[in-house]
Design goal:
two-stranded parallel sheet; 164 residues; Pantoate--beta-alanine Ligase, Chain: A,domain 2; alpha+beta; 21% strand
Amino acid sequence: MCGRARPGHLRGVATVVLKLFNIVKPHKAFFGQKDFQQTVIIKKMVEDLNSDVDVVVLPTVREEDGLAMSSRNQYLGPEERKSATVLYRSLEEARLLFNKGERSAELLRYTIIKIFKSEPSVLLEYVAIVNPKTLEEVKEAEEGTVIALAARIGKTRLIDNIVL
């Protein structure tokens, strides 16, 4: 997923978080669902290292138009900001298909790609339909499967995801 575009980033995040956990020794640590891949890696790290930290994942907070709140949103110009709503719109369309019974990951992915084509200023970097514990891509979506994506709008890279 994000590893291809940002090699070493998640390893660095895990290292910093582990150092923080070792210094602060929290009982609970709260992370946002928006950074889904990061939360999976941190949960796995906590489990593998037998850390006594309860990792709590909180829902993604969204703007009124559905765009996931992010410090990166400030880098978007007005037109880019409007175009950026395609991230959540495409995810919601895939969720709608899933709720109507569609299980093919390929068809759900195709639906998202097709919607992105309506916003030529937004470059879809990846869309992954994955197992929520292993991050492995699935062929068939089921309850709890995660659809994650990343896109570039100008120089700004945005990520988003939903849990089916």
